Backbone:
């Protein structure tokens, strides 16, 4: 029989930690991330996220009981209680629904990538919008991807907004972050992964002869695009066809379309 954890008062020191985790520097310094909302937290638990602490108010407390009964709470998870709207003072959004969580940041080095990288990977070069990155990670997981490589200058995958955009997918993926562009290109080539660079105005992806898999889709900065090291190291540079007068799509939309196209092309090739 599961035992519901004791709900303890939230100390001032713990409040400071929760506040620090709203910044990338704070997350990296403490080796922790913050996640908000019962659905996101439960999804993360089911995907193996390791949480240290939960903070709940009276609305969120029943969730702890339910998770405990379902065997989702790991041993040693500490639960802290606050009153009503106090939870907003340590949250990133007003949509916590009474519960937020602190977990350990997974290792994000190149050696931590799995031996099998999957058929399609994401190579993110300088993406700044956390919502865009979160959506791309969600799409990557949806097409069966297993790994993402984030070049230096790309927003943190554990930014609260990126985590919300990924809808739990972050915890299904292995991520190597903080690599220089040349290092990322070398890593992928060394693992037998061909890079397909997505660049506006280039020949259509849908008509291009794609390389043998596995493939890494390179998506660049929302304004500056893909850096020269990645473009030069790509096996294929392609774009998406657009109607006259439409200059571009968001990085999230364009990258998601391209990932599905690549996954479909590879799947069709393998089934022949």
Residues:
């Amino acid at each position: 029989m599961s035992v519901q954890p004791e709900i303890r008062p939230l100390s001032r020191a713990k409040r400071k930690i929760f506040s620090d985790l709203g910044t990338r520097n704070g997350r990296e310094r403490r080796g922790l991330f913050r996640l908000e909302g019962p659905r996101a937290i439960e999804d993360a638990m089911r995907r193996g996220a390791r949480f240290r602490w939960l903070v709940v108010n009276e609305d969120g407390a029943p969730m702890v009981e339910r998770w405990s009964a379902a065997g989702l709470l790991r041993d040693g998870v500490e639960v802290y209680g606050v009153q009503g709207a106090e939870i907003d003072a340590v949250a990133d959004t007003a949509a916590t629904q009474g519960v937020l969580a602190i977990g350990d940041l997974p290792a994000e080095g190149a050696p931590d990538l799995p031996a099998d990288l999957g058929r399609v990977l994401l190579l993110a070069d300088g993406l700044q919008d956390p919502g865009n990155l979160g959506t791309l990670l969600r799409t990557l997981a949806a097409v069966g991807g297993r790994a993402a490589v984030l070049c230096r200058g790309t927003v943190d995958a554990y930014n609260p907004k990126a985590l919300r955009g990924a809808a739990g997918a972050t915890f299904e993926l292995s991520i190597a972050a903080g690599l220089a562009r040349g290092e990322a290109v070398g890593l992928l080539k060394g693992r037998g992964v061909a890079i397909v660079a997505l660049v506006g105005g280039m020949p259509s992806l849908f008509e291009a002869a794609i390389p043998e898999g596995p493939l890494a889709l390179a998506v660049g900065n929302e304004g500056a695009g893909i850096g020269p090291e990645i473009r030069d190291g790509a096996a294929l540079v392609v774009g998406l066809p657009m109607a006259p007068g439409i200059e571009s799509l968001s990085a999230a939309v364009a990258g998601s379309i391209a990932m599905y196209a690549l996954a479909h092309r590879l799947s069709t090739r393998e089934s022949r």
